[in-house]
Amino acid sequence: MNTQTSRRKRVLNGVLLLDKDSGMSSNSALQRARFLYGAAKAGHTGVLDPLATGLLPVCFGEATKFAQYLLDADKAYIATLQLGAATSTGDAEGEIVATADTVITLAQVQAAISAFSGEI
User: Fold this and answer.
1) Is the predicted pLDDT of residue 111 greater than 80, yes or no?
2) Where is the Pseudouridine synthase II N-terminal domain (predicted)?
3) Per-residue model confidence as pLDDT tens digits over 46-94
């Protein structure tokens, strides 16, 4: 016997612009929105890393048919970083286990950033 209360799914068409918080996967955000709205059909238009925050378009119903156009659209990203620190996990969630002085020029930063511009 299913112990969960079954909710009646409803036909819902449109796009929800969801501001995804850090710590939640894109799929978890999608499933939560789908549940809260009681939508019969839903899909997101790309994956944000669980540590990333940002806009996650969620398509419901008929809007899922044009989700690919949103996937192929231009996107922009903003990053914050700390140089000279190593963490226990290799990401922002770990504890800093080592630090080092770093000397980096603006030209070096611009050269590194250029690798992440354009078609990736």
Assistant:
1) yes
2) 36-120
3) 888 898 999 999 999 999 998 888 888 888 888 888 889 999 999 888 9
The CA-CA-CA angle for residues 36, 40, 45, to 5°, reads 80
**pTM as predicted:** 0.72
**Six token digits for residue 25:** 């996967």
Q: Which residues of 9-30 are buried (b: 16+ CB within 10 A; e: fewer)?
A: eeebeeebebebeeebebeebb
Q: How far apart are the first and last CA of the chain?
A: 48
Distance, in Å, from the CA atom of 94 to the CA atom of 1, rounded to the nearest integer, reads 42
Distant-in-sequence, close-in-space partners of 96: CB < 8 Å, separation ≥ 6:
85, 86, 87
- Checking if the pLDDT of 22 tops 60, the result is yes
Residue 43 · residue 57 · CB < 8 Å: no
Q: Where are the domains of the chain?
A: 14-71, 85-114
Q: Which of 19, 21, 49, 72 is catalytic?
A: 49
The answer to whether residue 19 is catalytic is no
Q: How far is CA 80 from the centre of its chain?
A: 15
